[in-house]
Amino acid sequence: MRDTLVLNASFEPLSTVTLNRAVVLVLQDKAVVEQSHPDLRVRAAAVDLPVPRVIRLCRFVRVPFRRQAPWSRRGVLVRDQHRCAYCGKRASTVDHVVPRAQGGGDSWLNTVASCAEDNHRKADRTPEQAGMPLLYQPFVPTPADAMLLAMRAGERSELPEWLARAAA
Ligand SMILES: [Zn+2]
């Protein structure tokens, strides 16, 4: 997979994204192509454009965390878009999947956003012990995730199928 460099509106390099994502950002008018490949084109049902090498965001975004993001409660809430991992409602607290009382630590993979109610209900139990399955799996956010979250471009992209095929 070919990666495209993303510049902020201020021309500061932010991150790289997959070609698929770059094309979607351009098609959604969220970014403009600054530099494209001289020979390669993306061709699919509704699209025919040069393969972008560098795109620049149309609006400046403030990225909440950058490469090697250290774990933080705020970072977890941003990563999970303030959605409770147990019920999907608005979350304001961070829950330890394996509770600290059972040796679970502060890490990206062991914490999820949670509403106060579910956090209280789950208490010092694992999701299995509490019978509260996770709606999504926690992940270590990459710089690209952070940028897309800051742009509100959605979670790890669900692309239209025709585009996923076209740009593969
Ligand atoms: Zn909840």
Automatic annotation (TrEMBL):
Domain named HNH nuclease: residues: 71-120
Pfam families linked to this entry: HNH
GO molecular function, one term: endonuclease activity
Top-level taxon: Bacteria
InterPro entries per UniProt: HNH, HNH_nuc, NA-targeting_endonuclease
UniProt keyword annotations, A-Z: Endonuclease, Hydrolase, Nuclease
PANTHER family on file: OS07G0170200 PROTEIN (PTHR33877:SF2), SLL1193 PROTEIN (PTHR33877)
Protein name, UniProt field: HNH endonuclease
